[in-house]
Amino acid sequence: MSQNALLRSAKGLGIPGTARKEDRKTKLKIAAPAPVEDRADHFAVRKGVRCAGVHLIVDLHGAQRLDDIDHIEATLRRCVEASRATLLHIHLHHFKPNGVSGVAVLAESHISIHTWPEARYAALDVFMCGSADPDACIPVLREAFSAQRVGVNEILRGQDA
Predict the structure, then answer these.
(1) Is 129 a catalytic residue?
(2) Is-catalytic flag, 9?
(3) Which of 55, 109, 112, 137 is catalytic?
(4) I want to staple 149 with a disulfide (CB 3.0 to 4.6 A). Which of 38, 54, 61, 129 is the partner?
(5) 51 noted as active-site residue
(6) Out of 114, 131, 137, 146, which one is annotated catalytic?
(7) Residue 126 class from Cβ within 10 Å (0-12 exposed, 13-18 middle, 19+ buried)?
(8) Residue 6 has what pLDDT?
(9) CA 7 – CA 24 distance, rounded (Å)
(10) Which of 20, 135, 14 shows the shortest CA–CA distance to 83?
């Protein structure tokens, strides 16, 4: 991945960010909301429970390649494919001396990653709604980072929505 493709902070890294600036001259037209019975809310059903989405909190211990930004991007892309989600954009930042933080923004929500290579640890959030399968990311992550131990906690978001 080229340096210009990375999302930059405003701390004088020398390369402008890729974020779009809002054009305040353009007036947005807001469509009328669809009737509730016609609305595709993209809620998920998990073990018979209707929810806004399934949020997996993933901890990788004893992991490898946590400072390899190209490997991390490729792994996020494999997770998106395995889960049958829709990738909108990936933002990754490589810290010095080491570590990577980033997010794969999905139509169904996101996958975020924060790595601590010196501790061989990575923290990920896998949050998906609709028919996407967040569980499919776990074996991809385990294999890609050769994790010795993987912890997963699940939260069903928006059960009462």
Answers:
(1) yes
(2) no
(3) 109
(4) 61
(5) no
(6) 114
(7) buried
(8) 40
(9) 23
(10) 135
Annotated active-site residue in 129, 131, 137, 146: 129
Sequence letter at residue 103: V
pLDDT tens for each residue of 5-37: 344 333 334 343 333 333 444 444 454 544 545
Q: One-letter amino acid identity for 22?
A: E
Complete DSSP assignment for 109-138? EEEEEEEEGGGTEEEEEEEE-TT--GGGHH
CA angle 141, 88, 108 (to 5 degrees): 70
Residue with tokens 């892309």: 77
Question: For the whole model, what pTM was predicted?
Answer: 0.75
HSE (CB half, 13 Å, CA atoms) of 103?
Answer: 9
Residue 67: CA count within 13 A, CB half-sphere: 10
- Over the stretch 110-133, which tens digit does the pLDDT of each residue have? 999 999 999 999 999 999 999 999
Q: Which CATH superfamily is domain 43-157 in?
A: S-adenosylmethionine decarboxylase (3.60.90.10)
Q: Mean pLDDT in the chain?
A: 83
Neighbours of 96 (CB within 10 A): 5
